[in-house]
Structures are given as structure tokens and as C-alpha cells.
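Good morning C.,

I know you're traveling, so I'll keep this short. The sequence:
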Amino acid sequence: MTRPFLAPSVAVAVALAAVALSACGSTPDGPRVTCPDVLLERSTADLVVFRDGPGRDLTDVVYEARLAGYSGDCAPAKDGTSVALSVQPTFLVSKGPAWSGGSGTFSYFVAIPAFYPAPEGKQVYSVPFVFPPGNATSVVLRDEKVLLDIPVAAGRTKPPPVYLGFQLTPGQLEYNRTAGGR
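The C-alpha cells, ready to paste straight into the viewer:
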């Protein structure tokens, strides 16, 4: 199963699903359309979840997660008007000293700032996780593929960049940006 993320042209996205494997190349009307840059923003690539309360030292960490990378593929449309992109993020989640068992959930985003504030500018996805039984202290998770149909502006050969990161609270973002973060 994949997670849809459709940019402005939903009809084109459906059509692109059938031809997503078309090769990159020159269009009949101009130069080759290339794939977008996919970027992991440093300030949103880590997540530290603390137990409730004011404590923010190592003993208060419930779990930590890192956006370890992604896999994916890209297929420019033959007419050069859009690019079909799929990304599948990989996360490393580790128990902290304050972990009390059970399961957890975190959220991440896939964003195309050039489209913001339209809904196509950012989508947020939740990822549930459970640590394996026994003494396992970490787990690697690969989420479902996120499919994007990214329009390419007339006269351009590359769509705008795509960003991946954790959906953080203001406090978590501040923690990542200060000495407390990585």
C-alpha cells in the first residue's frame, strides 16, 4: 500500500500511475525534465520525546527517532509537465531510559514549500511502532511509499525540491536547534 500525495493535478496523477516507469529524456518540445531534489532538513531529522513534566535530561527520554534516509524513484512525464516521485522513508527508533513499554507513534511530513499554503504543500503521516519482545532497544522502520505528482512550471526542467522531516512541536524543534539537540 502507498500513501498518496497529489499536487495540483489529480487527473494527471492518476494517468501518471500507469506511465510512471517512463524513462527520463528529452521532451518533444524541449530539454529533459529532471527529478526534484529530496532533502532531509537537519533541524527536523531527529525526534526526542520526553516524559511529561519539566525534566529534559537523558533520564527523561522516552524514545528517540532519527530519519535515517529514504528510497524512491522518479519518472518525468513524457510531455515534460510533471514528475511522478515516490519516496519511502526509513526511521531508526530507540528506547530511552523513561520508556515504560507498549507502543508509540510519531509523525513525519513530506513538503513542497513552493506549493505552501495549499494542501499540496505539506502532508503529515503517522507511524505506529512497537519494539520487538525481549531486550531489543531499537527498531528500524520503513514507512509506506508516498506518491507525489509534482508539476513542472513551463520553461523549467526541474520541479521544486521536496523535504522530509519529523512533524515536531515548537519545543521539540527548539530542542533540536539548541545544544540539547544533535
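Safe travels,
E.
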